[in-house]
Design goal:
The chain has one domain: Protein Yjbj, Chain: A. It has 5 helices and no strands.
Length: 66
């Protein structure tokens, strides 16, 4: 998945992200603005999981969009 493309569709993607990770707030998503590393960090922090687990969850999410 091309994250540069996602930045352009960020407003549309926000709903799907909130469905997947309901703990993410609108403020979190505003701050992330399509930046993959920041999304991984936010998921890690909100859910208290290791970075590699957050990375794995994001990869699964990316696959579901393809």
């Amino acid at each position: 998945m091309n994250w540069d493309t996602l930045k352009g569709d960020w407003k549309q993607l926000r709903g799907k992200l909130k469905e997947q990770w309901g703990e993410l707030t609108d403020d979190d998503l505003d701050r992330i603005e399509g930046k993959r590393d920041q999304l991984v960090g936010a998921v890690q922090k909100k859910y208290g999981i290791a970075r590699d687990e957050a990375e794995k969850q994001l990869q699964a999410f990316e696959t579901s969009l393809s």
